[in-house]
Amino acid sequence: MKNICVYCSSSDAVDAIYLETARALGAQMAARGDTLIYGGADLGLMGALARAVHAGGGRVVGVIPQALQARGIAYAIADEVIITPDLRERKATMEARADAFIALPGGLGTLEELLEVLTLRQLQAHTKPIILLNTRGYYAPLFALFAHLYRERFAKPFENLYHVADSVAGIFDYLDAYKPFVAPSKWFALEER
Ligand code: AMP
Known about the structure:
alpha/beta; binds adenosine monophosphate; Rossmann fold; 7-stranded parallel β-sheet
């Protein structure tokens, strides 16, 4: 049983396949007894995921900034609702509570959250697993951008910084086998200079 932090889209305008994948993840988390830690909204993939966890009898923890909660978009029936003063504290609370991070397809908010935990992992600030669910190749352009950063030596290639799963089952295969390890130094070694 794990506390799994999921970052995903707040958009309802996306193709149904993305919403279905969020539901499939929620159902699987509930079946395993994992707790969902997420941004607390009842919108898009976020809402679909939370409702699926509940439908399967699982536990939902929503962490939502005051300003968003005041707009009435919170998933009000979460088992625990944590209201934070701002977005930064929300992210910190989600990170602290999580044993693992999963990013489903999402927009700028999802990218921001994902890049923060990747950056912290790279800086050896945590050793928690980070998994991207690459539904229909959604994240291919991001991986191409990462490859560009590596080629230009703005970042150091680090194969195990995150795991790419093509299916919900693939997420849990990785999680169940994961052994925490400290990331290698992000900086180019002196001998490489
Ligand atoms: P986006 O990918 O831009 O739709 O943003 C979704 C991500 O950012 C989620 O993982 C949330 O944690 C956070 N987020 C963005 N918009 C909202 C919202 N309206 N309510 C709650 N969380 C949100």
